[in-house]
Write a structure and sequence with these properties.
Structural class of chain B: alpha/beta
Number of helices of chain B: 8
Strand content of chain A: under 5%
Shape of chain A: globular
Radius of gyration of chain A: 20 Å
Order of helices and strands of chain B: EEEHEEEEHHHEHEHEEHEEEHE
Number of strands of chain A: 0
Strand content of chain B: 25-35%
Largest sheet of chain B: 6 strands, mixed
Distance between the termini of chain B: 43 Å
Distance between the termini of chain A: 44 Å
Number of strands of chain B: 15
Helix content of chain A: over 70%
Order of helices and strands of chain A: HHHHHHHHHHH
Low-confidence stretches of chain A: none
Oligomer: heterodimer
Shape of chain B: globular
Largest interface: A-B, 16 and 27 residues
Chain lengths: 224, 291
């Protein structure tokens, strides 16, 4: 009998992660696209690390840092009441780190591709940096924002290693779909594993198809 | 009165160059900066607008100080009242023509300014279009109108007409002259067309390697040898043909071609693309009204 809970949990995790990532990634991408600072390569490297690092490495360090035995984990627990190990909050934190490049890179590319005269024109018209960002820059990189949102969302759905390391396999709390599949296969329930897999496959296909349709201009009337 | 003194080390195509200028511009005049590309013209406009920081300098506009590096005063671009027309226009692609103009309004300004500009610059038919649906000349007019919404103390145009054909160019020159007079603007124009400089400006500054080489009334500045011609035009040589012992030089003046007879020793110093002045003083030109 297939349990819907892991799927619901997966999409809840992906939605929250994507929303938070959007808020975090816009300032990072804006800064990376415009700065001439010497520490830019270092920050760029850090943002891109999750692309090449085995997820288990990231998960392992998060597990160590956030464990109650570690000063950081201890402090978070005592002062903020946050336990990031084997909890949904911990999954969100880990997912944000893990999917960061998928949100930052498209937005950064979007900002870089805009002609600098748009920003300058807005400044000489007396508009502040934030007005320029929200009224001029962001509306003109909608395709990049959409790409970032979709990639981060889809990538979070596909997480496995990080989640397993820091979240474990607690039903209703940290047992997301990708882990449920692994679980069912281990228990030789291939049917159920197949259902989970099929649903993830179809959803991932539809999401990516939407991006290509929209950014390719096929659905222009719906995205103006 | 606008006083501008600026110094900045620039990296030019051939090594570094010290831009060092000190100019005064009368309120209400139309002034051109003329010079080869890379001479520092755009950098001057960018420093006046605050988009580029000067190493040293002082800018006062109608008794207000915009920049004084000695006193540490540097106004942000937002605080300087300027209209700037960029070479690539800088129109916001996400907004219609009208929204581009409305965006430029200041908080306490009424929409009336926008509708007035739409009338003067004849944008009525275009106002609901997005910039991607406009021709080069139309984009130019929108950029000009948008730059005027704030009622700038200086209007700056960075080679606004270089990408346009001659007919469109002449029309836009007329638009610029019209708004310049109507709003009593102080206008700073970059151009490297002598005919444009002569047609448009009260005063020209010739910039070479970051320095003012010459300044003054355009006709006087460009006629190096003092000619006392009764009438004269500047143009560009487009063709030199030999016919027996003489040469026929075809010159483009504005949108008209003129053929002039020249001798071999005159032609020796001329080449296609050279800017020349066509002048005459031996006869009386006749004027006749065209019906």
């Amino acid at each position: 009998m297939m349990d819907w809970q892991p799927l619901v949990l997966t999409f809840k995790l992906a939605a929250i992660t994507t929303a938070l990532l959007l808020i975090i990634a816009i300032p990072i991408a804006y800064w990376l696209a415009h700065t001439k600072s010497q520490i830019k390569p270092i920050l760029e490297t850090l943002v891109s690390m999750p692309l090449v690092l085995p997820p288990t490495v990231l998960g392992f360090y998060l597990l160590v840092v956030f464990s109650p035995a570690n000063p950081v984990g201890n402090w978070l627990d005592e002062h903020l009441g946050l336990q990031l190990i084997f909890s949904f909050e911990g999954l969100i934190f880990a997912s944000i780190l893990y999917s960061l490049p998928f949100m930052v890179h498209p937005i950064q590319a979007g900002f870089s591709n805009l002609s600098s005269s748009l920003t300058e024109a807005s400044y000489v018209l007396g508009k502040s940096k934030s007005t320029t960002l929200f009224k001029v820059l962001l509306p003109n990189i909608k395709p990049s924002l959409l790409t970032g949102i979709v990639l981060a969302f889809a990538h979070t759905i596909g997480e496995f290693g990080v989640v397993l390391m820091i979240g474990g396999n607690i039903p209703g709390k940290t047992k997301v779909a990708s882990i449920a599949i692994y679980d069912e296969v281990e228990a030789l329930n291939y049917d159920i594993a197949n259902w989970y897999s099929l649903i993830l496959f179809v959803i991932a296909f539809i999401i990516l198809l939407m991006v290509y349709l929209i950014n390719g201009g096929y659905l222009k009337r719906f995205w103006k | 009165m606008i006083q501008i003194a600026l110094q900045k080390k620039l990296t030019a195509p051939h090594g570094s160059m010290l831009l060092d200028i000190d100019i005064n511009i009368n309120k209400g005049s139309l002034v051109t900066l003329y010079g080869d590309s890379g001479a520092g013209k755009t950098s001057i406009l960018r420093m006046i607008s605050g988009l580029l920081q000067a190493d040293k300098g002082r800018i006062t506009v109608n008794q207000k100080t915009w920049l004084d590096t000695n006193k540490g005063i540097v106004l942000k671009p937002q605080q300087r009242k300027i209209g700037y027309v960029f070479q690539d226009y800088g129109l916001f692609p996400n907004m219609t023509v009208k929204q581009n103009l409305l965006y430029a309004l200041e908080k306490d300004q009424s929409n009336h300014t926008v509708s007035e500009l739409i009338d003067i610059i004849e944008l009525g038919d275009l106002q609901e279009r997005k910039p991607e649906k406009l021709s080069g000349g139309q984009k130019q007019r929108v950029a000009l109108a948008r730059a005027l919404v704030r009622k700038p103390e200086i209007l700056m145009l960075d080679e606004p007409l270089s990408a346009l054909d001659n007919k469109m160019r002449a029309k836009l020159q007329d638009y610029i002259l019209k708004v310049h007079k109507q709003y009593n603007l102080t206008t700073l124009l970059i151009s490297h067309e002598i005919s444009e400089v002569i047609k448009m400006s009260d005063q020209v500054f010739i910039i070479e390697n970051g320095k003012i080489n010459k300044q003054g009334n355009p006709i006087e500045v460009f006629t190096t040898k003092q000619m006392s011609g009764k009438f004269q035009f500047s143009g560009e040589i487009v063709q030199i043909e030999q016919e027996d012992v003489i040469y026929i030089v075809t010159i483009l003046i504005g949108i008209n071609f003129v053929k002039i007879v020249a001798e071999e020793n005159e032609v020796a110093t001329l080449a296609i693309g050279d800017k020349v002045i066509v002048a005459s003083k031996a006869f009386n030109p006749l004027l006749q009204k065209i019906d």
